[in-house]
């Protein structure tokens, strides 16, 4: 459920007509709903109610400061995968003891920075990283709380590029080696074992792979405890999928996910951490674009928009589907026609949808990509020197630009000339 609904024939974000924001800000832009973000965060809180738990928002899915602060004020922790995201979390007012640091390539500088400013735990992904963390922490006279990210060799049955829990994936340590690495961790200075971590992929639409992974983690937890380790926390990662089409997808609900967690892990007497990104942010955001041209081709027609693959790369990168709807509601019973929906970038990959049935549209009409809140703005670029598009946050009847569109001068002046060149006037 989200808060982007038609009212009097015009699509609204909460109580604000998108036509008003478009007239003010210009297209294309991202638009987020505070009510939807809040609702989705609370679904996880409710799903884990009664369990000692922390919901850590995966910053990489949507990292605008206004979004992070909205969630932080609701009590969210944060899952970060870089020093930059760690700084974003701090800047949003999240205390270090609510920040978990994931990722396969943490640098010494990132470790040092997080140890200086506070960290709930590092989710360590290899024995090599563990040793480096031990040396960094020891040199600082600090102690780094850690979990080991375990790769349970479970197929998440999701898109190839976002499956992370099979043994051929680069993530985590093989579950078969986990006990040996925990044994080593226990001997290292500057390291405190606090738990176990797992994250098997993103956009999972079935609970079975989660359950398979969590069962293995439950067994491992018992073995590690028998080995004498203190395992008081399980980080279960993110990955719960969302419906990208209104019609036929029914991914599991957070409540069902929570019930499964209770069933599989409830008797372990552990603190549960989860790291959802997409389910909180995905349907809380849309991308609003304008039609530039309708182009009639041979046997196919093209709807050319002012948004492109640099603004929303998911269709080009993952073959992802986004529902695309007009801001002015199409009259009931209107005949739909198939069009290829594309952007202006000079690549055939810049195609959002092929043969998509759409109502008649004209230049300057507004359209909306639904479910674009997660892995949308954060993956955008300025390819073709197209400025990063603005982000707008709506709350009830208010809206605010939370990242402005840069000017062309700002973009061009980011480049610097070497001393041997003379600047042109
Ligand atoms: C990407 C990622 C997440 C978030 O995944 P979603 O599918 O957006 O919920 C959580 N944890 C880790 C370690 C990740 O890499």
From TrEMBL:
Its cofactor is pyridoxal 5'-phosphate. Coiled coil: none annotated. Pyridoxal 5'-phosphate binds at residues 239, 275-278, 375. It catalyses: meso-2,6-diaminopimelate + H(+) = L-lysine + CO2. Residues 35-281 form the Orn/DAP/Arg decarboxylase 2 N-terminal domain. The modification N6-(pyridoxal phosphate)lysine is found at residue 60. Pathway: Amino-acid biosynthesis; L-lysine biosynthesis via DAP pathway; L-lysine from DL-2,6-diaminopimelate: step 1/1. InterPro entries: Ala_racemase/Decarboxylase_C, DAP_deCOOHase_LysA, De-COase2_C, De-COase2_N, De-COase2_pyr-phos_BS, Orn/DAP/Arg_de-COase, PLP-binding_barrel. Substrate binds at residues 278, 314, 318, 347, 375. Its EC number is 4.1.1.20. GO terms for molecular function: diaminopimelate decarboxylase activity. Belongs to the Orn/Lys/Arg decarboxylase class-II family. LysA subfamily. This is Diaminopimelate decarboxylase. The gene is lysA.
């Amino acid at each position: 459920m989200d808060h982007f609904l038609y009212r009097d024939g015009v699509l609204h974000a909460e109580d604000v007509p998108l036509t008003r924001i478009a007239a003010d800000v210009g297209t294309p832009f991202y638009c987020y709903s505070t009510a939807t973000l809040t609702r989705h965060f609370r679904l996880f809180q409710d799903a884990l109610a009664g369990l000692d738990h922390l919901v850590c928002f995966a910053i990489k899915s949507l990292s605008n400061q206004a979004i992070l602060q909205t969630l932080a004020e609701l009590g969210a922790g944060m899952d970060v995968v870089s020093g930059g995201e760690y700084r974003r979390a701090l800047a949003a007012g999240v205390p270090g003891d609510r920040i978990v640091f994931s990722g396969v390539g943490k640098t010494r500088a990132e470790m040092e920075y997080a140890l200086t400013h506070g960290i709930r735990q590092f989710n360590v992904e290899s024995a090599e990283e563990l040793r480096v963390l031990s040396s960094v922490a020891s040199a600082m006279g600090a102690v780094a709380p850690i979990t080991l990210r375990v790769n349970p060799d479970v197929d998440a049955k999701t898109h190839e590029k976002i499956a992370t829990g099979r043994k051929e994936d680069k993530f985590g340590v093989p579950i078969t080696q986990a006990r040996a690495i925990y044994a080593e961790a226990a001997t290292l200075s500057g390291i405190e074992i606090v738990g176990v971590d797992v994250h098997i992929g993103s956009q999972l639409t079935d609970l079975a792979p989660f359950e398979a992974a969590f069962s293995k983690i439950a067994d491992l937890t018992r073995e590690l405890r028998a080995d004498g380790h203190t395992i008081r926390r399980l980080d279960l990662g993110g990955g719960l999928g969302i419906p990208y089409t209104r019609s036929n997808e029914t991914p599991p609900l957070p409540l069902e996910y929570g019930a499964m967690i209770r069933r599989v892990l409830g008797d372990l007497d552990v603190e549960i951490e989860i790291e959802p990104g997409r389910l909180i942010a995905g349907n809380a955001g849309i991308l609003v674009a304008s039609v530039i041209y309708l182009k009639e081709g041979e046997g196919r027609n093209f709807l050319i928009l002012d948004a492109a693959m640099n603004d929303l790369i998911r269709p080009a990168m993952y073959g992802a589907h986004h529902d695309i709807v007009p801001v002015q509601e199409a009259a009931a019973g209107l005949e739909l026609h198939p069009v290829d929906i594309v952007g202006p970038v000079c690549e055939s990959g810049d195609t959002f949808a092929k043969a998509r049935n759409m109502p008649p549209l004209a230049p300057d009409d507004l359209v909306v990509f639904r479910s674009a809140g997660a892995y949308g703005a954060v993956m955008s670029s300025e390819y073709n020197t197209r400025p990063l598009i603005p982000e707008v946050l709506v709350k009830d009847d208010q809206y605010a630009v939370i990242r402005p569109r840069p000017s062309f001068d700002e973009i061009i002046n980011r480049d610097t000339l070497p001393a041997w060149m003379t600047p042109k006037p």
